[in-house]
Amino acid sequence: MTAGSAPGADAAQRAPRVVVLDHGSGNVRSVVRALEAAGAEVELTADREKALAADGLVVPGVGAFAATAAQIRAVGGDRLVERRLAGGRPVLGICVGLQVMFDTGDEHGERTDGLAQWPGAVTRLQAEIVPHMGWNTVEVPEGSALFDGVDAERFYFVHSYAARRWEMEAIGPMTPPLVTWAEHGGDRFIAAVENGALCATQFHPEKSGAAGAALLTNWLRTLPRYAQEDAP
Length: 232
Description:
The structure is a single chain. The protein is α/β, with parallel strands linked by helices and 232 residues long. It has 7 helices and 13 strands. It has helices at 9-13, 29-37, 48-53, 65-74, 77-86, 96-99, 209-221; strands spanning 17-21, 41-45, 56-59, 91-94, 102-107, 110-113, 118-124, 132-137, 154-159, 161-163, 178-184, 187-195, 198-201. 39% of the residues are buried.
């Protein structure tokens, strides 16, 4: 620490430390590279202590809800998410990493338990053309930090399932979550959620060009800088 500087001052000035949870999801290297390009110090790992101590934890996911939920649980990711959120430490879910934050996923007639951070189910999109693949606009609520400066941009989606209802009710004076929506083939679904320390996007910011890069930069700006010894 520099002489005369306040405790934590050095931490506040360094690049944010981010762990991308390594649970076997494909193509996570692009997430790592995108976060590095946005200015983070990034490590791909499932190490418990590193994941708890990081300024931010990213939970990626591609493919099926059931497989992703099983992979996350296999490396203790469900407990890591729960522990971080209990301490107010930021978590960002991407694609199926958003979906598994809900109670359940219904795929091919089977229901799978998610991480139950939000009530509700992930179900198949009700559109003529599925999967929803390509660029799409989003409906951003007022006050969004994630979409600051990019609320009118397009983002890249690849999915057949989505959370198509928001069921969490407001609790007393707590700040209500900010929910961003998108539409495909006349079916409206959740594109992103900002809920205190837990944020998530259905689209892939790492595949969304300059708009996605700006969104990741916005998320990194919200991260507190923790001393490593302060891990919960």
